[in-house]
Automatic annotation (TrEMBL):
It catalyses: [(1->4)-alpha-D-glucosyl](n) + phosphate = [(1->4)-alpha-D-glucosyl](n-1) + alpha-D-glucose 1-phosphate. CDD domains: GT35_Glycogen_Phosphorylase. Its cofactor is pyridoxal 5'-phosphate. InterPro entries: Glycg_phsphrylas, Glyco_trans_35, Pyridoxal_P_attach_site. It comes from Photobacterium piscicola. This is Alpha-1,4 glucan phosphorylase. Its EC number is 2.4.1.1. Phosphorylase is an important allosteric enzyme in carbohydrate metabolism. Enzymes from different sources differ in their regulatory mechanisms and in their natural substrates. However, all known phosphorylases share catalytic and structural properties. Allosteric enzyme that catalyzes the rate-limiting step in glycogen catabolism, the phosphorolytic cleavage of glycogen to produce glucose-1-phosphate, and plays a central role in maintaining cellular and organismal glucose homeostasis.
Length: 819
């Protein structure tokens, strides 16, 4: 048998010819006059040809291996730009760079032409992308299933400090070079209508759904290229179209009045990614998206299973489905429906399959993010699914009754249906009742899932609730985004580390080596310079790379407490202007964050930071000690420049609120020191890097609960801490705001009269204290650099390869593809 090589065979001349062919025939451009954009597109297409061949090849190998696959169901995959990363995975970065130079271009310039596919909001979507990368790197049979949104997460810009949103047409006019349509995989999906009963020839009773509307799912595959192993797995994204002319007659018949009432137009279903992060709104179009995603994906899995010659009864032997949060939960009743109604299995046989296929990941404890859907809405859109949900709930209640006889309180709590004015379906309860594994995303979070969210489920289904700590792919988040540091590491410990991140531990031995420290520090400086150049060019702000670059980059949310960071900045401003004895090392505070368009306070916080930045950056009294930069339109490609440039990583959520965080891992890996609360994965980062190499502050989860139950009063802190008082008062005296926008007073009001729901005031003093330690320790550069080296060296645990191995061993039970 031919053995597959580690890296792709490459012939420079034919690659160059392929690029030129695509430039002319695919993009209709003249070689002499084509723009950088078109050259990038042609290079992308030429590369995609290689990966599509490998994708088909890998599909065959999986079918032949007769082994279990995982299907990662997610409404979001925040993949970021693919070209540069794929070059690294193909092992062709140097060769393509050379070929592109010979064509008269710089590879790095062409890579800058790529728009980020922003098909996700934040952590949950980016995690899905890292997981796909790690599945491919370790050759675990897998398919990612998502939606082919026409518009990704909105583009953000600032107008006089206010966030404004623009549509994100990531595919542009020319289409995205890496995607390929798979027409033979297209699917049809029903909606609305009614359910009827019939008796088959053997006298068996069955139910049948008669949908009133039919949608068509168009399959698009993006290649997930395994790191230097030649395996390629699909990220399959479904686009919704009206099935023309198939159902047009029905459409005109008025056969589906229900559909017109709800104004579903097929073209709208996958038009836009919902921009909410951690907030559920219950919109019918969102439920339609969720069902469309699940119906197409379940149908695709079953087609593949049958095509590979397997019986329907063996489905759970060959397929596992991971639900990325509750967003794809409707896949559970959908698979039941298909097994019961289409394949005519008995309930028990269908349930035996379903309950061995699905596993569910919980990503948040915030009550406003826990999805519920109105029973009436589900009944209208998906009448058969509602029947099935009722039956699952009935059987759950029987189990609860057996365990806690007569205990109606527990029944009410565990029921999938929440009683009340309008009855709601609780998607998380449906998940816990129907899956064989439920996991949180960091050790602390998983404990809180057991202790606070589902304690009775933990008793009812012992062992079902587990932990898998999140991770990040070291290929994108070190090798690709920080090439100089990567080269230094490889020089010291060899080149295997991107696939075995625990090997980084070996650089700890150089943490006190003066020469190594100097080189490490020099690379950080150059990365700071690269970012400073970007800021100078794009934002017209000059930054001093001797300053501490202090970074908070993540979605804007009260629980993440960007306003705590802001208050600290105000305290420094106050002290610099009012306390002649006060001195500090120069600092640049760097923010990047999008606010959900409907989240008013989040938008106020963005505005306030922008206004403070305007003032601070231009105030000569501050002697350049303080700079504030709010980088607009945060996205993966910006993270790739900011993260390598960071000295300090802000991970300052109220304890118990951030499920894990993954930016914390990326920043530590790139040698930033964390200032953070005992929340999410910060707890485990501290365990790995040691107390001396991280700045922990603030209330613990138990302190937060205690304080709240005793009756937290932010005014007490305000009155007793003069620095806090001075900082908060700066919010309300027109110091920063020329226009009379209410943003500043809204923030102040939220903190004082609004009860300060995320305990910003309670944590302020300790936070300031931790920052004072950072200031002092940064001045001792030898010690500081040692700490940053140790951060890089000791966070190997947070490779998403390890997360995936945890899922594989404890939940999915897969074996890697044979070579
Ligand atoms: C909820 C909703 C509600 C409906 C509209 C769209 C939408 C989108 C996202 C969400 C929930 C997002 C939950 C989430 O992103 N959690 C984050 O997951 C990360 C990966 O596990 C984790 O690192 C973060 O701490 C956690 O906040």
């Amino acid at each position: 048998m031919k053995k597959r090589g580690q890296t792709q065979q490459f012939d420079k001349a034919s690659f160059k010819a392929s690029v030129k062919k695509h430039l002319v025939t695919t993009y209709a451009q003249n070689i002499e006059t084509a723009s950088d954009k078109h050259w990038y597109l042609a290079v992308g297409k030429a590369l995609a040809e290689i990966s599509t061949g490998n994708l088909l090849e890998t599909e065959k190998r999986i079918a032949n291996a007769q082994t279990r696959s995982v299907n990662y169901f997610s409404l979001e995959f925040l993949i970021g730009r693919l070209t540069g990363n794929n070059l690294i995975s193909l092992g062709l970065y140097e060769q393509i760079s050379e070929a592109v130079t010979e064509l008269g271009f710089q590879l790095t310039d062409l890579l800058e032409q790529e728009r980020d596919p922003a098909l996700g909001n934040g952590g949950l979507g980016r995690l899905a992308a890292c997981f796909m990368d790690s599945l491919a790197a370790q050759e675990f049979p897998s398919v990612g299933y998502g939606l082919h949104y026409q518009y990704g997460l909105f583009q953000q810009s600032f107008l006089n400090g206010h966030q404004i949103e623009f549509p994100d047409a990531w595919r542009e006019a020319e289409g995205y070079p890496w995607e390929v349509q798979r027409p033979e995989l297209n699917q049809f999906v029903g909606l609305y209508g009614d359910v009827s009963s019939y008796t088959d020839d053997e006298g068996q009773q069955h139910r049948r759904w008669n949908p009133a509307v039919t949608l068509q799912g168009i399959a698009w595959d993006l290649p997930i290229i395994g790191y230097q192993n030649q395996s390629v797995f699909p990220l399959r994204l479904w686009e919704c179209r009206a099935p023309v002319p198939f159902n047009l007659a029905k459409f005109n018949d008025g056969d589906y009045v229900g559909a017109q009432q709800t104004q579903i137009a097929a073209g709208n279903v996958t038009k836009i990614l919902y921009p909410n992060d951690n907030h559920d709104q219950g919109k019918v179009l969102r439920l339609t998206q969720q069902y469309f995603h699940c119906a197409c994906s379940i149908a695709d899995i079953i087609c593949r299973h049958l095509k590979n010659g397997h019986e329907i009864n063996s489905l759970s032997k060959f397929e596992a489905i991971q639900l990325n949060d509750t967003h794809p939960t409707i896949a559970i009743p959908e698979l039941m429906r298909v097994l019961l109604d289409d394949h005519q299995l008995s309930w028990d046989d269908a349930w035996a399959i379903v309950s061995k296929i699905f596993a569910y990941t919980n990503h948040t404890l915030l009550p406003e993010a826990l999805e519920t859907w109105s029973e009436a809405l589900i009944g209208e859109l998906l009448p058969r699914h509602l029947e099935i949900i009722f039956e699952i709930n009935h059987r759950l209640m029987v189990q609860v009754e057996a365990k806690w006889p007569g205990n109606n309180e527990i029944k009410r709590k565990l029921s999938i249906i929440a009683e009340g004015q309008s009855r709601m379906v609780r998607m998380a309860n449906l998940c816990v009742a129907s899956t064989y594994a439920v996991n949180g995303v960091a050790a602390l979070h998983s404990e809180l899932v057991k202790r606070d969210l589902f304690p009775e489920f933990d008793e009812l289904f012992p062992g079902r609730l587990q932990n898998v700590t999140n991770g990040i792919t070291p290929r994108r988040w070190l090798k690709y985004c920080n090439p100089q540091l990567s080269a230094l590491i490889s020089e010291k410990i060899g080149t295997e580390w991107p696939a075995h991140l625990e090997q980084l531990e070996a650089i700890a031995q150089f943490a006190t080596n003066t020469q190594f420290q100097q080189r490490f520090a020099e690379i950080k400086k150059q990365n700071k310079q690269r970012f400073a150049d970007w800021v100078a060019e794009n934002l017209d702000i000059e930054l001093d790379t001797n300053a501490i670059f202090d970074v908070q980059i993540k979605r804007l949310h009260e629980y993440k407490r960007q306003h705590l960071n802001l208050l600290h900045i105000l305290s420094l401003y106050h002290r610099l202007l009012n306390d002649p004895t006060f001195d500090m090392h120069p600092r640049v505070f760097i923010f990047a964050a999008k606010a959900a368009p409907g989240y008013a306070l989040a938008k106020d916080i963005i505005y306030a930071i922008n206004k403070v930045a305007d003032k601070v950056n231009n105030d000569p009294r501050l002697n350049g000690k303080l700079k504030v930069v709010f980088v607009p339109d945060y996205r993966v490609s910006l993270a790739e420049i900011i993260i390598p440039a960071a000295d300090v990583s802000e991970q300052i959520s109220t304890a118990g609120k951030e499920a894990s965080g993954t930016g914390n891992m990326k920043l530590a890996l790139n040698g930033a020191l964390t200032i953070g609360t005992m929340d999410g994965a910060n707890v485990e980062i501290r365990e790995e890097v040691g107390d001396d190499n991280i700045f922990i502050f603030g209330l613990l989860v138990d302190d937060v609960e205690k304080l709240k139950s005793e009756g937290y009063n932010p005014h007490t802190y305000y009155e007793q801490d003069s620095l806090l008082k001075a900082s908060i008062d700066l919010l309300d005296n027109n110091e920063f705001d020329a226009t009379d926008c209410a943003a500043f007073s809204n923030i102040r009001h939220n903190l004082l009269e609004g009860g300060d729901p995320y305990l910003v005031l309670a944590d302020f003093a300790d936070y300031v204290n931790a920052h004072n330690c950072i200031d002092a320790e940064y001045r001792d550069q030898t010690q500081w650099v040692k700490k940053t080296i140790l951060n890089t060296a000791l966070v190997g645990k947070f490779s998403s390869d390890r997360s995936i191995r945890d899922y594989v061993n404890n939940i999915w039970h897969l074996t890697a593809l044979p070579k």
